[in-house]
Every structure is written in C-alpha cells, then in structure tokens.
Amino acid sequence: MENLKLFLQLAFDHVLDWKAYDHILFFIVLAVIYSFKEWKKIVWLITLFTLGHTVTLGLATYKIINIDVKIIEFLIPLTIFITATVNLFTIRKKNSHQSNINLFFAFFFGLIHGLGLSGFLRMILEDTDSKLLPLLEFAIGVEFAQLFIVFIILIAGFLALKILKISKRDWVLVLSSIVIGIVIPMLVERKFW
Fold this sequence. Notes:
mainly alpha
C-alpha cells in the first residue's frame, strides 16, 4: 500500500508540476475542443494518452527502447505545437474529424511523452525486482491527474462559453494560440541539432 501511495504521488507530481508544465499545456490543447456533454470521448482521450504514455514508459524502463533525451525533450513541445495548430485549422469545420484527430494524438503523442519520464522512473525502479506493478500504479496516478487537469479545462470552457458568452470557436482559437506562443520558445530552446 505504501508503494501505491508513492507511485500515485510521483504521477501527480509529474503531471501537475508547474515547473515542467508540458503535460498541462498538452491537455489544454487536447481538451479545449470538448465540453462536459462529450464526457465519453474525454475519458477515451485521457485513457488513450495514459496507455501510450505507459507503453513507452514500460519499454524504456525494461530497457527495450532507449532514445536520446534531447530528441524527446524537443518532441514533447512539438506534439503540443502540432495539436494546437490542428485546433486552429479545424475549429472552423463543423464535423467530428477534429475530435477523432485528437483521440489519435492522445495515443500517439502519449507514446512520445512517456519517453520523457523514462530515465527518472528507470532510476527509481533500478533495484526493483518487479517493475510491472509500480508502472501500473504510476499509470493510475497519471490517469487521475489528467482527469483533474481536463476537469479544470472543462470548467474554464463552461465559464467562458456559458457565463462570458465567448463562442466556442473563439475559445479554442485563443487558448490554442496562447499555448503556441508558450511552446515556440520551448522548441527553439530545446532544438537538438
């Protein structure tokens, strides 16, 4: 039980870390297109990200894959930039393709984000005989932390759309643009070539 608490806390610290806010930025641009009435898609979105995140985290922890951390540190803000940019170009369209694209982004980009923490988790689990249970405990913590982030984003969206009467299109455009503005310096700073 003590290990479960430890890995849940590590996951919450990882996802909700204001100093390493890439998870938060990614989920802002991933979830900004949704509302509370789309809760099933939101659960899929979060779960697909956690699944992708856990797959590569596990593969890296078991030393099956090893990718240069500089490349991963560049790819993480790139995933945020791509997701935000897609939001800008697809919000004007009245179809569900954007939602389906974000489900794909959640899993595929989750694979990349999982590699970002692999060195840290590998170091913690180095002397552990069974790495599977701590990985699953960490994944559960990531899932709950992401649910928390998305819940906050949905509340903010509800307030913006229903109380402040901002159009959904404007809400998505403004938030996605702000995130792009934050991420571009990260991309420049983290270029690996």
